[in-house]
Amino acid sequence: MPSDPQATLETFAALSQATRLEAFRLLVRHEPSGLPAGDIARVLEVPHNTLSTHLGVLSRAGLIHSQRKGRSLIYRANLSHMLTTVQFLLRECCAGSPEVCDPLLASLTTPDCTSACTSQASQEPQDHD
Question: Is the bond leading into 36 cis (omega within 30 degrees of zero)?
């Protein structure tokens, strides 16, 4: 998990490419069940071999992880890694005036992904490889 500038740079470098950013956001929307690589490729309209490269970059940066389920690899977003990254960025927030950052920090700890996330996830294909 990012706790130093270099790890944070690696996290942002991995997200600084459009397909990788969209893949990570897609996996965030599909937490906690995750998605097989084939579904990710179909939703993003990316060839499987290209997607494999992008997923490798995200995985090495700690942003995603995979688990074998039958013949498929199920990919999931590593939300704790992203939270740690954001916490690193905000560690010394607001120069001693926490009331400035309190609303932002509270929004990071309040789960508001209920119906909005569920409705978005249900619109994407659920076919498995």
Answer: no
Say how many Å lie between the first and final Cα of the chain, rounded.
Answer: 30
Of 55, 91, 96, 62, nearest in space to 79 by CA: 62
99 Cβ contact partners less than 8 Å away, ≥ 6 residues apart: none
Q: Which helix (H) or strand (E) holds 18?
A: helix 18-29
CA 43/CA 53 separation, integer angstroms: 16
CB 42 within 8 A of CB 127: yes
What is this structure's pTM?
Answer: 0.76
Instruction: Please tell me the predicted confidence (pLDDT) of residue 111.
Output: 59
Burial class of residue 16 (count of CB atoms within 10 Å of its CB; 0-12, 13-18, 19+): exposed
Read off the pLDDT of residues 67-105 as tens digits, 9 standing for 90 and up.
999 988 999 999 999 988 888 887 777 776 777 777 777
Looking at residue 110, its pLDDT comes to: 58
